Fold this sequence. Notes:
The protein is an alpha+beta fold. It has 5 helices and 14 strands. The strands form 6 sheets. Strands 4-5-6 form a 3-stranded antiparallel β-sheet.
Amino acid sequence: MAQTGKVRCQRIGCDAIFSDDDNPDGSCRYHDSGPIFHDGMKEWSCCKKRSHDFSLFLEIPGCKTGKHTSEKQVIAPVKKATVAAPTAAPSTNASAKDSCSRCRQGFFCSDHGSQVKPVNTVGDNPGSVAGHVCAETNSSVQDPKDPKKIVDINEPQACKNKGCGQTFKEKDNHETACSYHPGPAVFHDRMRGWKCCDIHVKEFDEFMSIPPCTKGWHNADPDQ
């Protein structure tokens, strides 16, 4: 029987809301195998993309495309990978920092000793960005904030709140429109869960299915 309303896609890495009437081939981007967690590193076993930060890890785009589905994705067991301990690169090794996704995005990087710094997005000079992001700690230095993005109230946007992922329009946004996890996510002794609602499970797909515990506004740009 065809679905009469919109449902959430059950593929790992997608989490979009869809209906049978609007589900073309290629509309779903997902990961077809599960994650690997080792020594603080999170990695998708299917595409080998990784991150230290869990929020960034969940935002890694899926490596497969297809149609959305309401059937729960079956993930084959993943053998635990042995990840060699990273060695700190010299501060003069610009090529290593340029190839580090965390350094490029302006997040803390234990491999290269970088520190979170506000990044001026005007211009696309990789060298200046890498040098700014991976500089020594200097909390007294502050760059001017980027101007806020102006969005049409009828423009569809994807909510970036953890556990939501719905598409919304600003004209329909209100203080209880979004169901989400304020976080943070917690990983300890092979258990995965959310600190906000104190629910912890063993399997990753069970973790992704934990119901959101908080109501609020949809947010398409959490950094603003």
